[in-house]
Structures are given as C-alpha cells and as structure tokens.
Automatic annotation (TrEMBL):
One of its GO terms (molecular function) is RNA binding. InterPro entries: PORR_domain, PORR_fam. Transmembrane segments: none annotated. It holds the Pfam family PORR. This is Protein ROOT PRIMORDIUM DEFECTIVE 1. Residues 21-298 form the PORR domain.
Length: 315
C-alpha cells in the first residue's frame, strides 16, 4: 500500500517528485482479500456448469493459463470447500463439497434480505450522479462492489418501476432515477456523526488545541491518518485545521452548481468520494472503476493525503 505525499518547492524550481510510503498493514489486508475473491470466482464457475462440476482440463479455458495455477493451488488448499473427483479412466473434476453446497444454497435467502439495502444504495448512486442517470455498463462494472446480482438488469430493476427506468441515451442503455427522495440525500458520514452527537456547528468552531495527527472533531471534519514518518509542522496543522472546520456542499447537490476552484467545492470532492465508497460492500473500488464514473460524479481526485488509501496490487 502506498500513500502519496506532495512536497512544495520554492521559487521557480521544479516540484519535487512524489514520494510514496508503504502501509504494510493495509498491504496485508489486500493480500488476504485475494483468497476469498479467488474462491468465490471458482465457486461461481462451478455453479454455472450444468453438472455443477468442472473438468480440471477445462479450468484454463475459464481463467487463463497463468491464473489456472492459482486456482489449482486453492483447490488443493481448501478441501473443505472443493472436492476433486474422477480417476479410473474418468477425467478429474472439481465440485463443491456437500458443506459448501449447503452454505451456497443459503445465498438466495441472504440476497432477498439484502435487496432493500441494494435498492437504496443504487438509488443513492443515481441521486449523486449529475443527471440522475448512469450507463448500465458502468453499473455492471461495479456491480459486485455494490452487491448486485449478475442479472440485476432483469431480476432487480423491473421489480421497482417507481424507482428505476432504463432508456437509450446517445446510443447507451442508461439507468434513470424515477423519483428523488430527500430522505436518502444524507451521507453515511452524516448518519455516523448524528449517531455520535457531532452535528452542533457552534460547539466546534471555538479554538481548540491542534491535534498532531490532523484529526478534529466537528461536523465538517474527516477522519485522517497520516503516513508513518510524516511530521507536519505547526503551520501545516493550522491550515489543515481550517480545512477540517470548513463547511462544504452536500454530495447530493448537482455538481454543475460548483466551480472546482472554490475551496468548499474541492472539499466536497472528498465527501463525494467518501460517500461513493460507502455505498460499496467493502468500502473500496479500483482506480479504473472510479475513473469510469468521472463523467457521472464529476470531478474527483485521489490527491487527499490521509483520507483515502490506494493499493497498487491486483486482486
């Protein structure tokens, strides 16, 4: 895990190169995430087969030559999940164990219980979009992050015509929001602060001792964590405290109303990205996924040290 740090340069000198600091604990988390991601993918492949099993010789066709070996290692390492059969002239195959099949069979019930949350988050995503619409292809790109079923376009969207509609716009199939709900235009951050009783603006505007870690308790502050080794001076902390206290427009207001040069609008960018990630199951998205939403939720940047982490590893 790497954290970018910008260093100022004086006069007309060339700005110093960015320095990236590793956060080993987060690297470890990302590494651990590779295993369940791989297991779930193999489970889906097996379940997609009519026989509910997959010939090992066909694994390469499904995942490619390089990834095949990672999947083979997972099959060998998790015998409680994957059963390998065959032999006596029968080609070897892999299937789910009886225990894994039982757990997988409960997914339908879990999905039904999760559906109201998924629908709410999808509505919130559309409400944050500039025109309250997003191309279906882009929603498919982050479908798993949102917890949506693979066939959400046919299994979920038609069930809620009061919330969603699909229309062709400029040659692209887009998901449109049918009704705006002001009760949903509240961020996860605001809900958390309300629960903690940290929404009294006047209470937090008085002078308080500056925290060396950059954190400030107030209705407009974000929780931050500076990289190990970063030692901000008092001038930096004073400026950062002013930023933490500065109010900003809601992520649910139309982005066209703001100029990105406005400091408050720039802080809103942080709030937009924070809210977008809060709609996902694991509170994270790939940089490619974020880039895909640039036109719908414009504009945002990763240049907010301490608030967001970016990992360069692959899942």
């Amino acid at each position: 895990m790497w954290i970018a740090m910008r260093h100022k340069s004086g006069g007309g000198r060339r700005p110093k190169k960015k320095i990236y600091h590793r956060v080993h604990e987060l690297d470890r988390v990302m590494e651990l995430q590779k295993k369940p991601s791989l297991i779930l993918r193999l489970k889906s492949i097996i379940q997609s087969q009519k026989s509910q099993s997959l010939l090992l010789r066909d694994l390469e066709k499904q995942v490619g030559f390089v990834q095949k070996w990672n999947f083979m290692a997972a099959i060998e390492r998790y015998p409680a999940i994957f059963h390998v059969g065959g032999g006596n002239r029968a080609p070897p195959f892999v299937s789910l164990t009886e225990k894994a099949q039982k757990i997988a069979s409960q997914e339908a019930e879990a999905s039904m219980l999760m559906e109201p949350i998924l629908v709410k988050n999808l509505r919130k995503l559309l409400m944050m979009s500039v025109d309250c619409r997003v191309p279906l292809a882009k929603i498919e790109l982050i479908g798993s992050e949102l917890g949506l079923p693979n066939d959400f376009e046919t299994s979920l969207i038609p069930k809620y015509p009061e919330y969603f509609s699909v229309k062709d716009i400029n040659g692209k199939a887009c998901l449109l929001l049918e009704n705006w709900d002001s009760s949903l235009a509240v961020t996860a951050r605001e809900i958390k602060l309300a629960h903690e009783g940290v929404l009294d603006t006047a209470r937090y505007q008085r002078k308080v001792r500056i925290s060396k870690d950059g954190n400030f308790q107030g209705p407009y502050a974000f929780r931050v964590s500076f990289p190990v080794g970063f030692r901000p001076n008092m001038s930096y902390l004073e400026e950062f405290e002013r930023w933490q206290k500065m109010e900003f427009p809601s992520p649910y207001l139309n982005a066209r109303r703001f100029e990105i040069a406005d400091p408050k609008a720039r802080k809103r960018v942080v709030a937009v990205l924070h809210e977008l990630l809060s709609l996902t199951m694991e509170k994270r998205m790939t940089s490619a996924q974020l880039d895909a939403f640039h036109a719908e939720i414009r504009p945002f940047s990763m240049a907010f040290m301490g608030t967001f982490y970016m990992s360069w590893g692959e899942l």
